[in-house]
Structure formats: C-alpha cells, structure tokens
Design a protein that fits this description.
It is built from 2 helices and 39 strands. By secondary structure, it is mainly β. The protein has 2 domains: 319 residues, YVTN repeat-like/Quinoprotein amine dehydrogenase (Methylamine Dehydrogenase, Chain H, 7 Propeller); 150 residues, Galactose-binding domain-like (Jelly Rolls, Sandwich), CATH 2.60.120.260. The protein is elongated, with a radius of gyration of 24 Å. The structure holds calcium ion (2 copies).
Amino acid sequence: MKNTVALGAIALFCSIAVSGWAQPTITDLGVFAGGEGAAGYGVDADGAVAVGFSQVAGTAHAFRWTVQFGLMDLGALPGFTSAGARAVSDDGSVVAGMLDPFSGSARAFRWTQAGGMENLGVLPGGNLTRAFGISGDGATIVGYGYGPGRGFRWTQAEGLQSTGTLPGGSYSEANDTNYDGSVIVGLCNSFPGHAARWTLTTGWQDLGTLVSGNVSEANAVSGDGQVVVGYNNVPMTGPSVAFRWTQSGGMQNLGGLPGATDTQARAANYDGSIVVGASSSMAFRWTSAEGMVNLNTWLQAQGVNTTGWVLTSAEDISPDGSCLVGSGTYNGQSRAWLVSGIGSVPAAPTSFSMFRGSVFSGNLASLIQSDDSRLILRPGVTLGSQEAPIQMIVNSLSPVASPSKLEFFLEAQASSSNLTQSIALWNYDSQTYENLTSRPTTTADSTAGVVISSDVDRFIGPNLELKARVSYKAFGPTLLFPWQARLDQVKWRLTD
Ligand SMILES: [Ca+2]
Ligand SMILES: [Ca+2]
C-alpha cells in the first residue's frame, strides 16, 4: 500500500538542490530566559512534543516543548518551587513528573492540557513520590514512593497503588511502563537490587543479573511489554553494562561503547528492536544488526549536521524509532535535544506563488537551505481587514505515495513581532486549506512546524502534490510602516 515511488524529477531535484540536506534533524529545545541549561527526558510518538526540565537561577522548571510553539513552562503547584518533567504520552497530551524533585517532600505530578497540573500524593505512610514513567496511552503513571519504599502505579480510576515487592523483599521502584500500562519494570529487593518486571497477574518477577552477586536495574520497557532494558553492575564500585531482557532469551549483555565503564540502557521503541541510552557520557543506539554505536557518529553517518553538539545521553525513543530525545551540550552549553525524522524522505519546495503580497527580494532557491539567505515578502492589498496581506502558496511533490507521517517546517523571521504567522496545508479531500498553527512572529529566525500522523493522505494530491500556505497578518497596534516577512527555509518530510 505504501510505496516509495521513484520520481525521476524529484531525485534529480534533490541531487542538485538539496544535496547534503539531512533528513533526520537535531533540534535544540532551548532554555527559558536566564536559563542555565536543559535536560530532555520524554518524546511523544511523532516528535511534535518533548518534555524535560530547564534550570533557571538554580531552580528546575518542567518544560513541555511543542513543534508549533516551542518551550512552555509547566509551572509548579502552590507550596512547591520547582518541577521536572520525566515522561509524556504517545499523543503528547499527558506529562508525568515531579514537584520539588530534589527535596525530601517531592511529589509526583500529572499534567494534562485540559486540567493542568495535579499532585498525585503519597502512598499510605509515605512522605514523597517521584514519577518516572507513563504508559503510551497516557492512562498509567509509575514511579517510586518513599516511606514504604515501594514502586507505585497511578490510574484515574484507582489512584496511587503500591506495586508491592518480591516475596521476602523490602523494596521496589517502578521506572517505566508499556503502552497500555499492563507491564511495569524497575527494581526489587534492597541490596543487591535486581531488575524486575511486574504485571497485575504475576506481580514482580526477578529478572536476575548478568553475573551472580551483581546488581541490576530495569530502566525501561518496550511499548509491547516484551523487552526490558537497563543496566547491570558490580556492587558499589564496579563498571556497569547495558542489558536487554526478553522472556525467551533472558538477560543479554549489550556491553558499552569502546573504553566506556558506565553504560545504561534508558529506553526502547515499541517492539524493543532499538535500544538507546548513555555510555560513559556518550549517547548510544543499539540494534541487533548494528550493535551498540555512538549516536553522535551514527547521526553524522545519516547526514545529520551535529556541529556544536555532543549528545551525552539518549533518554527516550518514539514507538517507531524515528524520534529520540536526550541531553548533551551545544557549543559547550547544557541543552536538551530532539532528533526527529529518522527514516523520513525529504521534499523541498518546487515552486511558489503569491496569493496576497509580493516578493521584495529572493527567489525559490532562497527557500531550499537554512543558510540565512531569505525570500523576503511584503504585504499587498487585501479585500478586507480580516484577510492576511501576505499569503504565499508553496508547492512540492511527495516522494512517498501514502506516507504514515507528514511534517512541514518553516524557518523565518519578520521585521516586527506584532504579526501572526500561520501555516495551513491544502486538504485535497475537502478542497480547503486547514489552518494548523498560528503564532507571533519573531525578529530572529525561528522554526515553526506541523506534524501530521493521522489521515495523512488528505494532504497528498492525486499526483502526489503537496501544497502549503504561509501567511502573515498584523495584530495589535496597526503597523504604519511597510513590514516584511523573511523566509529562510521551507521543507517537508515524509515517512513511509
Ligand atoms: Ca537561518
Ligand atoms: Ca535559505
């Protein structure tokens, strides 16, 4: 059904105009004003939402980044001064994290777009909770409750429930859960701790260790619940190695990057075929075919421009493996990063036209690369005050016949921030533009995007046409002088 069609015209166009244009991209998720750095922990299914925290004046602020609007501070409930976000549901709408994460009275929280932030409370007799994971469907949050020293599982219907521990055990931690919340993984016993897997019917199951007497801990479980990943180490002093566990194969040693002494697997995709993590402060990616490779060099081999970046850990992966989030440094500054579009195919603009407004300078070639060479547009006459006086229609062709995902990105700035920039895609079914995002313009380049992963075919024409409309309109005080929109790059990304 989904066929990558070989369109000679596109292939030729790509080889000439966009050679070296990497398909996966790395995005700096930014920091809040005055921020000292950021760490990324969770990504949704299609790379449109990422979560983590950003440090401002020594205080952690939980963030939820979206491709449309960038960084948003989730704030903190009254009585708390700091927060950190640890995980996000596959649709990006539910976030799990911690209030005052580094204090003795930390509380797990749940955030939703509709209801805001909610304190999940403590287990009976407990005095703190920390949330570490969320199910793909967003209904189950897992973490750890101090006091009783037990992993917890939270659902709307049942509230906070202890996961218990192994028979005779004194301790448990719940670090992650699968797509539907039916499998939880973490740590059981006191010392030495063992990686463990929990289901409602079996309770905790000890996954053992690679070497008798060692310590192990499970950090994550695949979406289907079948693959558990984490680390194994020698108690107290020893080096750690990553492991990948399956029911049939038991615990498999994934080792570490060459020379590394401290390796942890942190996440797995839906079927557990891709594992990511950190190996002596270098992010890694593992597959059975390629083994464990340094993510920095792997991305370079994919054509990603990683200039300035050192990716020190990969903390989460989307179910399809196309998006990764984690932490690192950009030009020496602590930053959260998002890599998206792994496995996607490019589509650069092939033509554009002005429906309202006109070209001040630049041309189609200005839109191809992110190189600060820009297509500069100015407003024109409109039929009414509600109509945007700059409306550019930009066209391309999809290299994929029936993509599972369509992404559209625009890097641009304007001469004023008193403008609204809107992106619409032409719906070939309804024969109308669907307005997908509107936001204020910035006077320095910024990237706005849309990610479509359901009913994608409505945006693909009968001959694989792609059509988008970018518009600009003044808001607030009327601008008395001519203003400009300056577009550096327009691009589509399609995933089969
Ligand atoms: Ca630029
Ligand atoms: Ca450009």
